[in-house]
Amino acid sequence: MASSIPGARNLPLDDIKEANKEKDGRLPVEDHNARIIIFGRDGEQARTVCEALTKLAFHNASFYGGTFETLSAEFK
To answer: Cα dist. 48→61, 73, 74, 75 in Å?
Structure first.
């Protein structure tokens, strides 16, 4: 099982449009101004997901530019 950050939701790039359409709880589809912070294995992956979310009108999305290992060390 892959590790994660407490409270995080897993949303791979390929699932973004489906999660937005299906309203499965992974995206705040009722509030496109809700704060979303994206992290991934590295900053480039997180930025790609962030750009995809902003194209779906999630206006308050940002990304963590570091690696997952660096971020997850803060939660140990």
So the answer is: 12, 23, 23, 24
The C-alpha atoms of residue 62 and residue 5 are separated, in whole angstroms, by 16
53-67 pLDDT tens trace: 999 999 999 999 999
**Tens of pLDDT along 4-62?**
888 888 888 999 999 989 889 999 999 999 999 999 999 999 999 999 999 999 999 99
Residue 42 phi, psi (nearest 5): -155, 175
Calculated CA dihedral for residues 6, 2, 19, 56, nearest 10 degrees: 80
Tokens of 17: 């449009």
**DSSP assignment letter at 33:** T
